[in-house]
Write a structure and sequence with these properties.
Binding site for [4Fe-4S] cluster: 31, 35, 38
Number of strands: 9
Bound molecules: S-adenosylmethionine, the ligand Nc1nc2[nH]cc(C(=O)O)c2c(=O)[nH]1, iron/sulfur cluster, magnesium ion
CATH topology: TIM Barrel
Domain Radical SAM core: 18-217
Subunit structure: Homodimer.
Binding site for S-adenosyl-L-methionine: 37-39, 75
Largest sheet: 9 strands, mixed
Catalytic activity: 6-carboxy-5,6,7,8-tetrahydropterin + H(+) = 7-carboxy-7-carbaguanine + NH4(+)
Order of helices and strands: EEEHEHEEEHEHEH
Structural class: alpha/beta
Distance between the termini: 28 Å
Radius of gyration: 17 Å
CATH architecture: Alpha-Beta Barrel
Number of helices: 5
Length: 222
């Protein structure tokens, strides 16, 4: 069995707790959502170009880069049937730090909660602008740990209000990292800072996708 890889590249991580550090990215094909703002919609299409690789081959390619931070993304990486096998193969190399970007619409329960190969999760909570809030699996919040992150990608004040409600309702700042990130180009970051100040959002971080500042925002493989 193989996994569908649409991109495998090294860059700086533009998002999350290791933003600014080098990371190797593995982007998988296919997603169960179609967020209005998705910047990798091409990777979601069934007929997009992908390479079929086994977990062992992906592990070899990651090791060959010499980079220790690994980000598994997509598309939606939790939909790959061999993900657990890949996580187990990567865990055999303890120098690797593995993180998964996931959309909040797939249960985290099968993915290594309490297992030695558990990765760090960055989980989105899809806000109204995405069009997919109804798909959120809120049971996932109780499976998150201190090293994990919940990210709210926001495009309006209504989104920010909703994010604030969810942070409060699930007491997220006491559970894990909490990030607000603008839908690129849709909302002025300054408006997000004003919102944070107005509501005294302690322990919440604003995050801007660094790679879209460094490179053309449409550029792939960076
Ligand atoms: C492309 S998704 C892939 C992983 C997974 N499907 C998810 O949604 O988390 C990776 C991250 O990019 C974010 N993202 C996608 N399009 C964006 C945009 N236009 N502006 C800001 N963030 C965006 C997503 O919200 C998610 O946090
Ligand atoms: N440089 C860079 N950093 C990223 N961090 C998360 C990404 C993603 O698409 O999940 C991403 C990405 O696409 N590029
Ligand atoms: S869940 Fe992630 S990959 Fe899927 S459409 Fe939304 S942003 Fe794009
Ligand atoms: Mg991206």
């Amino acid at each position: 069995m193989t996994m569908k890889v649409v991109e495998l590249f090294t860059s700086i991580n533009g998002e999350g707790t290791r933003a600014g550090e080098l990371a190797v990215f593995v982007r998988f094909q296919g997603c169960n959502l179609r967020c209005s703002y998705c910047d990798t919609m091409w990777a979601n299409e069934r007929d997009c170009a992908y390479t079929e690789l086994t977990p062992a081959e992906i592990t070899d390619r990651i090791l060959a880069t010499g980079i220790r931070n690994v980000t598994l993304t997509g598309g939606e990486p939790l939909l790959q049937p061999q993900l657990t096998e890949l996580l187990q193969a990567l865990a055999a190399h303890p120098e690797l730090r593995v993180e998964i970007e996931t959309n909040g619409a797939v249960s985290l329960a099968p993915f290594g909660i309490e297992a030695p190969w558990r990765p760090v999760f960055t989980m989105d909570y899809k806000l109204p602008s995405s069009g997919w809030e109804q798909a959120m699996v809120t049971e996932n919040f109780s499976l998150l740990e201190a090293a994990d992150t919940v990210k709210f990608v926001s495009g309006s004040l209504a989104d920010l209000e909703r994010a604030r409600d969810i942070i409060e309702q699930y007491d997220l700042t006491h559970r894990c990292h909490v990030y607000l990130s603008p839908i690129f180009g849709a909302i002025e970051p300054v408006a997000m800072v004003e919102f944070m100040k107005q509501h005294k959002l302690n322990d919440v971080r604003l995050q801007i996708q660094i790679h879209k500042v460094i490179w053309d925002p449409q550029k792939r493989g960076v």
